[in-house]
Design goal:
- Helix content is about 30%, strand content about 25%.
- The protein is globular.
- The protein has a 7-stranded mixed sheet with strand order 6-7-8-3-9-10-11, with helices on both faces. A 4-stranded antiparallel sheet has the order 2-1-4-5, with helices on one face.
- The protein has 8 helices and 11 strands.
- A hairpin with a 5-residue loop joins strand 1 and strand 2.
- It binds adenosine-5'-diphosphate and magnesium ion.
Length: about 280
């Protein structure tokens, strides 16, 4: 697909990144440690792992909302040292401004654009995210799915080189979630930003991502990387998809392994690569 955006997607690079907080007992708490990661321009990478393993911290470090205790974070050629306008973010809650309607919320991040461009981009985002007919609606008048569409449209409107999604569909019902996953892929077609997605949902990760990173906790670190080499559009009912999903679930030890699997007689999926402390190049 040809890129319409003036701002090309950017690589995201973490080099030896660690982040320590002060825990509730006053002692240092290592949230993430020794994370090396290179995300290619335009790539979709999913981060999965137990609660508290540092997924949100990693996204916040990329967005410049936290500063690493060790190592460095880069977006394109720029070292991230503060809140980064190159990154669009969507969270589990929509975080729309309640006093602005859908159009107003999408236009909010476009204040530096001329009025004509602003209008054109808002219309484009409304069409692309399936919000037609809801332009004048206020956040409290929207369903959960519609509000997340508006949050996605707002994040994508300035065509950010990087899109950071922290469990964006985590609060939606199963049907809406599946629809939104497809719509996310459609919505990002306009600019194809480099995308990092935190999710608890392994199916969502396998459906959307080019690579799935499994994180381990205490301290948070990348334990394993799976390259999702399934053709797109993906069919979540296919045998290949189920097999891939099972492979990722095995990493969490929540699959009743067959004796053959347990003995590693079933060949490990060819997409698997050990990632911990390795330079991740896609
Ligand atoms: N601002 C903060 N102050 C103190 N501890 C924090 C802060 N942010 C996160 N943590 C701690 O860092 C760890 C990782 O948190 P987080 O990145 O939110 O995990 P996840 O998103 O994977 O659930 C947790 O133990 C959490 O309590
Ligand atoms: Mg989190």
């Amino acid at each position: 697909m040809t890129r319409v955006s003036a701002t090309p997607a950017a690589t995201v690079r973490l080099e030896g990144v660690g982040k320590a907080f002060t825990g509730s007992d006053g002692r240092p708490l290592s949230a993430v440690s020794e994370v090396d990661l290179l995300v290619a321009a335009g790539e979709i990478v999913a981060l999965v792992g137990p609660s508290g393993c540092g997924k949100s911290t990693l996204l916040r470090l990329m967005a410049g909302l936290e500063f690493p205790s060790e190592g460095s974070v880069w977006v394109g050629a720029h070292r991230v040292t503060g809140p980064d306008p190159e990154c669009g973010m969507v969270f589990q809650e929509h975080r729309l401004l309640p006093w602005l309607n859908v159009e107003g919320n999408i236009a909010f991040g476009l204040r530096s654009f001329g009025a004509q461009d602003r209008e054109r981009i808002v219309a484009e985002q409304i069409a692309q995210t399936g919000l037609a007919g809801f332009e004048r609606a206020y956040p409290h008048q929207l369903s959960g799915g519609m509000a997340q569409r508006a949050a996605l449209a707002r994040a994508l409107a300035p065509k950010p080189p990087v899109l950071l999604l922290d469990e964006p569909f985590g609060a939606l019902d199963a049907f809406t979630k599946v629809r939104m996953q497809e719509e996310l892929l459609r919505a990002r077609q306009l600019s194809q930003p480099t995308t990092l997605l935190v999710t608890h949902d392994i199916e969502e990760a396998v459906f959307l991502a080019d690579r799935v990173l499994v994180l381990a906790e205490r301290p948070g670190r990348i334990q394993r990387a799976f390259v999702v080499d399934l053709a797109r559009p993906r069919d979540r009912t296919s045998t290949a998809f189920s097999r891939f999903r099972r492979t990722v679930l095995r990493e969490f030890g929540i699959v009743n392994e067959t004796p053959a699997e347990a003995a590693e007689l079933i060949p490990i999926h060819r997409g698997i690569a050990l990632a911990n402390r390795s330079k991740e190049v896609s």
